[in-house]
Amino acid sequence: MPQTVGRKLPIRTWAVNGLLFALAHVLVACGPIVHRAPFPQRPDSVRPGSYIGPFDGRVEDADTNQPIADALVWCSWSFERGLGNTAVEAVRQSQTRTDADGRYRIPALIRFPQGLSTRLARFSFVVYKKGYVAYRHDRVFGQTRQRTTFAQLNNRVRVSRWSPELSHAEHLLFVGVAPPLVKESRWEVAAAVAELEGTRVLRPLTPPAAGPSSAPAKTGARLDASVLLSSDDVRAVTGYTGAFTEGRLAGRRTDSYDTFHLRATDRPERYDVAIRVWRLSDDDLRAKYEEVLNKLPDSKQTDQIADRSFTVQQGEILGIGFMDRARSALVLLTCGKGQCTDVKHLFDLARKVERRLGRLPRLRSREEPPALPATPEEDED
Q1: Which of 264, 314, 330, 373 could be joined to 278 by an S-S link, Cβ 3.0–4.6 Å?
Q2: In sequence order, what are the residues at sequence separation of 6 or more whose Cβ sits closer than 8 angstroms to the Cβ of residue 318?
Q3: Residue 267 contacts by C-beta under 8 Å, 6 or more apart in sequence?
Q4: Please, where are the H alpha helices in 257-325?
Q5: Spatial separation of the C-alpha atoms in residues 193 and 203, rounded to whole Å
Q6: What is the pLDDT at residue 204?
Q7: Number of other residues whose CB lies within 10 A of the CB of residue 38
Q8: Domain 55-161 belongs in CATH node 3.30.110
Q9: Average pLDDT, stretch 339-367?
Q10: Does the domain spanning 225-359 belong to CATH 3.40.1000?
Q11: How distant, in Å, are the alpha carbons of 202, 250, 253, 333 from that of 206?
Q12: DSSP for 182-198?
């Protein structure tokens, strides 16, 4: 017969009850579920980082690579509980400011909500400095794709200066509504309200209507503006080391009008370069030049390139337009101040484009007979 203690309960029963009590205590006090982070621990490592932290790095001006002091660095962890019908369990926040060298450090999270079904639902990391575009660990402002350069430790935060063509309303949505961020971004509210009410209109440097003022002359081949400038040309002139995505600007492409757009990867519009080119006969060419000149406010006649030329600036976008009558071409070249940090860069790019106008298809005079129609076999190709 087994030995008994106290109320003559078997020792085995006491052991089982004690084990169950200890297990229940552990389960109740169980920390939250935290999934594997998609970002690395360090920029040069394949070891995954941790949502829990700590986090450290340096905040820099994207144009000058100089450190940015007194920038707000804010971190948030949102926990939820439940299976199926979930509810917010707790939110933890931590914030700091960069020192004189642009350095920041967010300590590791140590206070966790308890519960079997509790899990980390959302993690946010934001860097905000007045006069700059905010930085988020997961997204790039103005772009749909995710950020892929964030790291837990030794992170390099490169922020771009604010450009007038950017939307304050969209920027505030991007930043979020956490109280510390709302306080920092309060200066943007008036401009955002003006945008939503229509009293502040964003004015990026956009082209006039693509079509000429009269019927275009017939051309011998499809106009292609991409032959006038390349991404390597831009890098050679401006010293830019980033990547570009090549494409065309919005709008209709015609036989007498084409565009070419070098969009800087992970950068705002002030790092982009774009070309708009018209091919027209002499009278139409001069009329289009006057139209473009008059539709761009504050443009200044310079006549430094080709037969006639002008410069213009709208916000952080620089522009130069020029007309080459010998080649029946009108060009409007735009370059953001982040890319063309010196107006000399703009002129150097314009001269490269001017020298390559001969690559465009020959403009046929109105008296020339049109090309023979394609055969059925050619139509099929």
Answers
A1: 330
A2: 311, 312, 334, 335, 336, 337, 340, 343, 346
A3: 62, 160, 242, 338
A4: 282-295
A5: 16
A6: 56
A7: 13
A8: no
A9: 86
A10: yes
A11: 11, 10, 15, 11
A12: HHHTGGGHHHHHHHHHT
C-alpha distances (whole Å) from 224 to each of 77, 159, 263 are: 50, 34, 17
Angle formed at CA 337 by CA 334 and CA 338, multiple of 5 degrees = 115
Nearest to 286 by CA among 353, 238, 214: 214
Q: State which amino acid sits at residue 238.
A: T
Report the run of H or E that residue 125 belongs to, with start and end.
strand 119-128
Residues of the chain with CATH 3.40.1000: 225-359
Helix 189-197 with 168-175: angle, nearest 10 deg: 120
Q: Using one digit for the tens of pLDDT, what is the confidence trace for 63-106?
A: 788 999 999 999 999 998 877 777 777 899 999 999 999 999 99
Angle between helices 231-238 and 343-355 (to 10 degrees): 140
Report pLDDT for 156: 96
* Residue 356 CB burial class (10 angstroms; 0-12, 13-18, ≥19): middle
Question: Tell me, what's the pLDDT at 296?
Answer: 86
Q: What is the pLDDT of residues 250-306, one digit of tens each?
A: 878 888 899 999 998 877 788 899 999 999 998 999 999 999 988 887 889 888 899
Q: What is the pLDDT of residue 370?
A: 47
- Gyration radius (Cα) of the chain, Å: 31
CB 98 within 8 A of CB 59: yes
* Residue 305 near residue 322 (C-beta atoms within 8 A): yes
pLDDT reported for residue 276: 95
pLDDT digits (tens, 9 = 90+) for 117-155: 788 889 999 999 999 999 999 998 887 778 989 999 999
Distance, CA of 190 to CA of 322 (rounded, Å): 38
Q: Where in the chain is the domain with CATH 2.60.40?
A: 55-161
Confidence of residue 209 (pLDDT cuts 50, 70, 90): very low
